[in-house]
């Protein structure tokens, strides 16, 4: 289902057509199709999302590139953006929110804790505990939405462009393909003889990532720079295709988070995934640091040192990335006018 937002005018447009996504039946109210755990009222969804949008006036211009906001029962991640290219060459995006994340719209700590449980399982005695407090009525959706807006900014301004040996691969190495790849690919299992793209020197990507490797069938994986790598990162797996038999010791979990604190990565999720997710996460952290007061974003352990993400961005290993992010975001709203 969706409500449509006209470009540059989202606040005034409250209405909306219904589409059930991803089923092919159109114009059915969502409550007819939802399961017991995930019943969502369309009007409530619409007004909740409008509230979130109104809470980020600095990012209103990004919403101008969103054509639809949809709710999905089948999304594996918490949210996603799909790029839509019109015949005229214009680019729009569909923002998709998972029903599970929507139900927890007021609880981002719980959303991220449960994401981490999928990685480490329930057997860890002292699991990482997210504590996030945001100046929003719906912190869960607030965080998720800003992260996805980061992906849109990345797309619009080519933050994560690659230089590829085969030029046409450059257009392949973007979200639709990346989101279709097998996330759990262990880079050691891949034959690197296929197609090779490198991150551009001095780019945001190049701080932590060296390459993007695409196999002929379109399966790709980002490779970290040696300095940003850690063997335990290969053991981490979010979403589908994870090996359920992987077990973690408490010592490994502590070691992984110690690495994260000292690394150039924003979060474990982005360190595990790609420079695309890294930009999404860095975009959120930067937004919280720049535009909000009294936000909290920490991961804590009962018996070990945790992370304060809003302080981490001031650490020496993060400075290069932070400076690049600032230069990317400078005058970005003005620059976006040229894209329309
Ligand atoms: Zn993302």
Give the topology.
Elements: E1 2-4, H1 42-54, H2 60-63, E2 66-72, E3 79-85, E4 91-98, H3 99-103, H4 108-120, E5 129-133, H5 139-157, E6 162-164, H6 169-172, H7 175-178, E7 195-199, E8 209-214, E9 220-224, H8 250-262, H9 268-273, H10 275-291, E10 296-300, E11 307-308, H11 309-312, H12 316-329, H13 332-336
Parallel strand pairs: 2-4
Antiparallel strand pairs: 1-2, 3-4, 5-10, 6-7, 7-8, 8-9, 10-11
Helix pairs in contact: 5-10
Bound molecules: zinc ion.
Notes on the structure:
The protein is an alpha+beta fold. It has 2 domains: 1-103, no CATH class; 162-339, no CATH class. Helices cover 36% and strands 16% of the residues. It is built from 13 helices and 11 strands. It has helices at residues 42-54, 60-63, 99-103, 108-120, 139-157, 169-172, 175-178, 250-262, 268-273, 275-291, 309-312, 316-329, 332-336; strands at 2-4, 66-72, 79-85, 91-98, 129-133, 162-164, 195-199, 209-214, 220-224, 296-300, 307-308. The strands form 3 sheets. Strands 1-2-4-3 form a 4-stranded mixed sheet. Strands 6-7-8-9 form a 4-stranded antiparallel sheet, with no helix packed on it. Strand 8 and strand 9 (220-224) form a beta hairpin. The protein is globular. The two termini are 26 Å apart. The structure holds zinc ion.
Query: What characterizes the major β-sheet?
Result: 4 strands, mixed
Whole-number count of domains = 2
How much of the polypeptide forms β-strand, as a percent range?
Answer: 15-25%
**Each distinct ligand:** zinc ion
Radius of gyration, in Å, reads 20 Å
- Number of beta strands: 11
Distance between the termini: 26 Å
Specify the helix fraction band.
25-40%
Low-pLDDT residue intervals, each spanning 5 or more residues: 1-33, 167-194
Count of separate DSSP helical elements: 13
Average predicted confidence as pLDDT = 78
How are the strands ordered across the major sheet? 1-2-4-3
């Amino acid at each position: 289902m969706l409500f449509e937002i006209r470009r540059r005018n989202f606040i005034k447009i409250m209405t909306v057509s219904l589409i059930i996504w991803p089923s092919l039946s159109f114009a059915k109210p969502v409550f007819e199709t939802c399961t017991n755990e995930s019943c969502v009222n369309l009007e409530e969804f619409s007004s909740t999302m409008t509230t979130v949008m109104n809470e980020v006036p600095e990012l209103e211009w990004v919403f101008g590139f969103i054509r639809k906001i949809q709710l999905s029962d089948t999304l594996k991640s918490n949210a996603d953006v799909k790029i839509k290219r019109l015949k005229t060459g214009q680019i729009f995006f569909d923002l998709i929110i998972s029903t599970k994340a929507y139900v927890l719209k007021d609880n981002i700590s719980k959303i991220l804790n449960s994401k981490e449980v999928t990685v480490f399982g329930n057997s860890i005695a002292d699991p990482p505990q997210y504590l996030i407090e945001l100046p929003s009525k719906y912190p869960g959706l607030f965080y998720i939405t800003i992260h996805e807006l980061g992906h849109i900014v990345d797309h619009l301004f080519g933050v994560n462009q690659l230089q590829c040996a085969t030029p046409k691969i450059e257009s392949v190495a973007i979200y639709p393909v990346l989101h279709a790849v097998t996330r759990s690919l262990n880079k050691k299992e891949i034959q690197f003889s296929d197609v090779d793209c490198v991150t551009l020197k001095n780019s945001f990507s190049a701080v932590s990532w060296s390459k993007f490797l695409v196999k002929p069938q379109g399966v790709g994986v980002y490779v970290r720079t040696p300095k940003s790598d850690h063997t335990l990162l290969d053991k981490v797996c979010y979403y589908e295709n994870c090996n359920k038999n992987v077990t973690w010791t408490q010592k490994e979990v502590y070691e992984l988070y110690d690495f994260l604190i000292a690394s150039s990565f924003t979060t474990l999720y982005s360190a595990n995934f790609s420079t695309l997710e890294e930009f999404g996460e860095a975009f959120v952290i930067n937004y919280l640091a720049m535009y909000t007061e009294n936000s909290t974003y920490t991961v804590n352990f009962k018996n070990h040192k945790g992370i304060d993400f809003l302080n981490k961005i001031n650490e020496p290993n993060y400075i290069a990335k932070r400076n690049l992010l600032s230069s990317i975001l400078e005058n970005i709203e003005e620059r976006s006018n040229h894209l329309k």
